[in-house]
Amino acid sequence: FFFQPHAGIRDPLWSRGLGDVYKRQQYMSDKNRIIIFDTTMRDGEQSPGASMSLEEKLQISRVFDELGVDIIEAGFPIASPGDFEAVTEISKTLKNSIPAGLARATKKDIDACHESLKHAKNFRIHTFISTSPLHMKHKLNKSPEEVLGAIKESVSYARKFTDDVEWSCEDGTRTDMDYMCKTVELAIKSGAKTINIPDTVGYTVPSEFKKIIETLINKVPNIDKAILSTHCHNDLGLAVANSLAGVMAGARQIECTINGIGERAGNAALEEVVMAMRTRHDLMPYTTNINTKLLSKASKVVSNATGFPVQFNKAVVGKNAFAHESGIHQDGMLKNRNTYEIMTPESVGVHKTSLVMGKHSGRHAFKDKLNDLGYVGVTDDVIQIAFGKFKVLADKKKHIYDEDIAAIVDDSLVTEDNVIKLKSLKVFAGTGEPQKAEMTLEVFGEVKKASETGDGPVDAIFKCIKKLYPHDVKLLLYNVHAVTEGTDAQATVSVRIEEKGKTTVGQAADTDTLVASANAYLSALNKLIIKRKKTAPDPSLSAQI
Length: 545
Ligand code: KIV
Ligand code: ZN
Hints:
- By secondary structure, the chain is α/β, with parallel strands linked by helices.
- It is 39% helix and 19% strand.
- The chain has helices spanning 20-25, 54-67, 81-93, 107-117, 133-140, 144-159, 177-189, 206-219, 239-249, 270-279, 295-306, 327-335, 363-372, 380-396, 402-413, 457-468, 513-533, 541-544; strands at 35-38, 71-75, 98-104, 124-130, 165-170, 194-199, 227-232, 253-256, 355-357, 400-401, 420-428, 435-443, 446-454, 474-482, 491-499, 502-510.
- The chain starts with 19 loop residues before the first helix and ends with a helix.
């Protein structure tokens, strides 16, 4: 006996004879279980300027693993040696989540995926090809028949390495429906266990997307052998709505990113789809494996790594998402929280800012605090560095809040590979005299000193760094924000720089904004130096994706 959720539509998941791979993951135990496929480190990293270092990706993947993400698309292994390395290292470390890699419909891409993913016990190869008339003609220069041939060949080739193969029809929502049905049927016949329907250009609307999924369920004869998935971009601000419409029509996997980052206007935001299904369970009786209490932490980790601040009014994870400003609302909240609150801040890991620790707090209490704040798998070395910084801060600052501790740890996580380090900094600022900085840096083990004047203290600092380590980069972003309130608050500074199309982001926190500025710039520069070491990406790539 199988429950039929939609009259007239075949049950999308429950009655499907999916292979061992899904039984192993127990997706089959619940017909309303939605698989969360995160692509923050692949599609998210395709956001202009959102590059992440290996260390940052490892940190993100640890948090996602703990968060309960089912599948983590860790990168596009053929795209660059950096992506290959990240997918390799991530696939070695995941405990619960299954790593995935992206591949075009070529053996070379699929081989690179397999090579980087093979360290994991279970892994997924995600291969794709465009199916819309526009893409087939102008991008691929292939006929619909040739694309069918490529689907058969690529999916069956990927199946040689794993039984967990996902196939995507790029530009799916602008694809002729009858042709899409043919491609999906063929991909399943060739061995794909997940069929992903991307709204690559963010063009569809919920009613149309729902119909696409329903049509596939009704017309593709072997659809019961695969899970249908959504992959919606946000060009019209509809990515989350479209993904949910897809699920209501029978899709059982959502591809999404934390903070909704991704190409152009981004992808469906993971935190939004998950909280929508949880909060409106009456209308969307679906479940996920996500520990929602870690959503806020995941959002911060991704924002720090990319240097993309989260907009204040961002749903679920924005600074103001649970703030009530007007008197009427505050009054209502005091009488009954349900008056203006549809989900609790605690349910997504937002806790009231609390005064937490002081200069007498010990290392043990500090470590416990990190666990409370959602920092999992932080190495002893990082804890040691962070604890040292905490002690220095506790001497300077009267009140230490959770946000201060988080800023310190984030600051400590990215410093291990640095080849240029700040030893000391003196700044002369104020009216009248030109602003001046005196700086000592350790550059590849050698201690060097310089002094420079500038158009403002930050300019003088950045000039000192350039003098001590000559380089030519474009400063794309310099951003300061206070971690907490008060004039003794720590400042977090973000710096984004670019050299020959390579972008890196550095961040640092300190009660002294100028020290934070120097460290943020150095952090971006250190990442750039690491990036330079890596060879150029595959030149055929830009022509094909
Ligand atoms: O948006 C898209 O079409 C993609 C595919 C590669 C899945 O990201
Ligand atoms: Zn995409």
